[in-house]
Write a structure and sequence with these properties.
conserved putative lor/sdh protein from methanococcus maripaludis s2 fold, 6-stranded antiparallel beta barrel, elongated, 4 domains, 35% strand, 28% helix, 4-stranded antiparallel beta sheet, alpha+beta, 22 strands
Length: 427
Amino acid sequence: MTIASKEETAPRHWQRAPKRNSPVQQISRLTRKLGMGKILAGGALLLVLGGFWYYNHQPSSDGRRGARLTAAPVRVAKVVQRDMPVIERTIGTVVAFDTVQVTPQVQGRVQEAFFKEGQMVKKGDLLFQIDPRPFQAALGQVRGQLAKDQAALDGARRDLKRFQALMAVNAESQQVVDDQMATVAADEGTVEADKANVQTAALNVEYTQIRSPVDGKTGPITVMPGNIISVTGTTATVNPLVTISQIQPIKISFVLPQTELPRIQLRQKAGGLTATVDQSDVGGGSFTVPVDFVSNAVNNATGTIELRATYPNTDAALVPGQLVNVVVELSDIPKAIVVPHDALTAGPDSQYVYTVSGGKARQVPVNVLFDDNNNVAVQGDLRPGDDVVVDGQLEVVPGGAVEIVRGEQASSQPSAPRKGRGAKRKS
């Protein structure tokens, strides 16, 4: 019988368990594996993109870039050479030539209005009638007082003549003559005051008829007939009876940046500045009017200067407060190379256009002189008659094949101004 050793017979519960990773260590190891996978995937993506770029930019056998299996479809327009006007677009506000608030000068009851709201009136037309009877009575009273005082003056003058005749024969004293002369002078002053009172009363009667001070269009009536209006001194304590705006002619107010002030002044000296008002967006037409006012100060809060143009407005199409599109021609670029605005493409360092010749596209860097949002005056390796791409630039590769799509083409000829403000001069 074999006796077991101590080690064999000892209980096994004390033996150390196999070492295992903790949950934190397992998560850390999994994260490292995922991070390495992302790095590998990113590297593969960079290799694919680099190969694509290399393929599209590798020079072909004839030394040209961008070999494509298919030609990019594009639309083109012609480069032209012409004088390019330098314009500035802005928003103008229609302003009444004159605005008058009609207020009463005497108090009383408004009897009648002789016009309709919104009616065109002429200067001197009767607008309102205030009850004139109290003022007519006051006029009669001061006229009576004038007659009374005039009679007293006439009597005093006759007495003075008699006293002077008596004094000439030593039948009257000098004191009596002097007293009578003072009486005559006092009566003359009284008569003059009475005449002034008569004039004032007559004016008050005239003020009961309120007439238009200007030619213009009436607004709403704020005090209807039948209401009592009161006046304190020379100021009415009620709202104006009506407001009249002179709209024939009318003003168009707009502002331009102060940086344009030298060109504005130069244009005025050269023959006058004009503004073109465009109402095509509301179904109207366009018209050109002379600029007859340039403000004498720059608004230091906005850095702009106000200009105004006068328009006859014979058809009353423009209304005060209306917003209109205004285009101001400030100068010209003579014999400029002009391309359509859509041909211009912005690059990382400069702007450029694509020209098409022999079925291939060529990238031409340009320097923009002026852009009016329709056409662009540029400097660059362009000649009149060259074809420039105006649509499809995203598919064009410098030196790559292109296919001109026939159809409606853009034009670099002068066109109607676009809405809004977009004209900028660049250097």
